[in-house]
Amino acid sequence: MKQKPRLHALVTGATGGIGQGICMALIERARKEDMDIHITAAGLHKGERIDALVASLRGAGSGASGIAGDVTDAAQCRSLVDEAISLGGDLNALVCVAGASIPGRLADLSVADWDQTFNLNARSVWLMAQAARASLLRTRGSITAIASMSGLFPHPGYGAYSPAKAALVMLCKQLAQEWGSDGIRTNSVCPGMIRTPLTEAVYQDEEMLQQRAALVPVGRIGVPDDIGQAVAYLVGDGASYVNGVSLVVDGGVSEHMLSLIPGRPRKEEGQRR
Question: What number is the average pLDDT over the span 7-19?
Fold first, then answer.
């Protein structure tokens, strides 16, 4: 009997809204393609949140395990990968979702906040990639990191977040160049405005929700599944020739800024000179 194809994904930051959306999208893809799937969901702490997520993933038809560790610590990154392999075998996919922003103007930002933002959003992905490299080599697997549209365009008042996410985008491109010939593809996803438990307080304000949605050419705020589907594509065989890409999933909002400039061009302004 022919053995089913297999997917083992280690997802960091899995208990957040986007992390959970990614896990569920991977399960959906596995079901459609008749694959065996195991998701190792990693969070900072063990407890109810990780346990509830694992139960949910199992209920959706996936093998699932929950582990905990600090992705800004090199030794703990190695431990996370080793534990994941012991639970589900070699990794086919490393999905790095863990990240955070510490708002603040650069003139007032502390060195500690700058370092923490870079450590969590960029350095942690490098550490996890290093730790997972040997396993991914054996499977010719992939790395996908969650960056942000704020890593492509400056976001004033967000402290080191935009510089850190920009560094993450470049890190993924660098990994793609250095490890692509070894069979390890690396890509990033840049979400736009996504409605998650972390941002829900903003969207409870109906006026704010409408104002934000009006900025998006497709007319709505994103949901975690939008990011999950993008990651499921990048992880899958259909993206086997996609390497070093920063996939923007924002409904077109980040390319919409020129339309906000007051005044409309007159016909003569578009004529040849």
Answer: 97
